[in-house]
């Protein structure tokens, strides 16, 4: 049976990575050989090298389309080297960000067009779509306040204006409204333990559903 592809999305400061880290530890302890946890941009040597270029705060002259293309390039390598082999092996892939991030951050945040970025990534992904996307949502003001209070290192995207982050969140909310069969929104203003429990339940239910379909 083919694997299960689950992505985590959210605006900066939502706590998405914290939630995914906690969940991945739980699942790895019980299903170490059946779970692959990865991230974007990144997930392998080439994609991580591209990540360093994209997020380096010194790269202030980077063109917005160059940025979008670099994300797509990193994603392509990530799929070929990491994601698709794991899915072909029947594993559950938990991925920190995927195409929705590019649509929200580059398409809306950078204002180069959500549809244009989506179409560009269809070439990069060859149509690969997550089975489930857990969108961890938080108001932009709250997310930026969390970043300021808790992060020692701020990357190029973290340092963007409030209006940029509001455009990103608005795009995420549109995506969630347009794809209710795939994207489930979790309120990240709740205690982090509640967010973790909610996301864990969503993943368990998705795995059970996937197993039932495979047995039919």
TrEMBL record:
EC annotation from Swiss-Prot or TrEMBL: 2.7.4.9
Stretches assigned to the Thymidylate kinase-like domain: 8-195
Residues binding ATP, per UniProt: 10-17
Molecular functions per Gene Ontology: ATP binding; dTMP kinase activity
SUPFAM superfamilies: P-loop containing nucleoside triphosphate hydrolases (SSF52540)
One Pfam family, short name: Thymidylate_kin
Transmembrane segments: none
Protein name: Thymidylate kinase
Listed InterPro entries: P-loop_NTPase, Thymidylate_kin-like_dom, Thymidylate_kin_CS, Thymidylate_kinase
Organism this protein belongs to: Secundilactobacillus folii
Function according to Swiss-Prot or TrEMBL: Phosphorylation of dTMP to form dTDP in both de novo and salvage pathways of dTTP synthesis.
UniProt record, GO biological process: dTDP biosynthetic process; dTTP biosynthetic process; dUDP biosynthetic process
Source taxonomy: Bacteria, Bacillati, Bacillota, Bacilli, Lactobacillales
Keyword list, A-Z: ATP-binding, Kinase, Nucleotide biosynthesis, Nucleotide-binding, Transferase
CC annotations in GO: cytosol
Recorded catalytic activity of this chain's protein: dTMP + ATP = dTDP + ADP
Family to which the UniProt record says this protein belongs: Belongs to the thymidylate kinase family.
